[in-house]
Write a structure and sequence with these properties.
Jelly Rolls; six-stranded antiparallel β-sheet; 3 helices
């Protein structure tokens, strides 16, 4: 069950300590200063609580819908936050999977195919929480390719 909205609305729904750590980081950290160091293709990882909670700062150009690639995770929940820009993320529950794919234990990712999907549009200041049963294809253009500044916080499943 994907959840999306402002950081404040997600904090209201968050009871788990690891989620609070992730969301409070987004709310209280000077994100602009960190993004000054981020370049396309050169992400920066920030440790929030070891491998239990960490943030990945990314800058990239969105891609067309035709290039969408569904992904799934088993060990981590994603908190995806758009710092600057607008993108859509395709989302499908795992029961919509029509073709499974090999899972990489090292990178906690697999790339299945799905029968259909829904779409979430995230713009600056909005975030979504994607659980392991939420297959997703991020980084998709809304109308035309655009530059995005995004933070993906990985929250280990307790």
């Amino acid at each position: 069950m994907a959840i999306f909205g402002t950081i404040e609305s997600l904090l209201d729904q968050s009871e788990k300590l690891r989620f609070r750590k992730a969301l409070e980081f987004l709310q209280n950290e000077d994100l602009d200063t960190i993004f000054q160091q981020v370049k396309p293709g050169k992400n920066i990882e920030v440790d929030l609580n070891g491998r239990d909670v960490f943030a990945i700062f990314q800058t990239y150009e969105t891609k067309p819908l035709e290039e969408a690639k569904m992904e799934g995770h088993k060990r981590y929940i994603d908190v995806q936050y758009i710092h600057q820009g607008t993108e859509q993320i395709l989302v499908a529950p795992t029961d919509r999977m029509v073709k499974n794919a090999k899972y990489s234990e090292e990178t906690d990712v697999y790339f299945p195919q799905v029968a259909d999907h829904s779409s979430i549009r995230l713009s600056s200041g909005l975030a979504c929480i994607l659980y392991p049963d939420d297959l997703h294809a991020p980084c998709i253009s809304v109308d035309a390719p655009s530059m995005i500044q995004k933070i993906v916080i990985k929250v280990a499943i307790e």
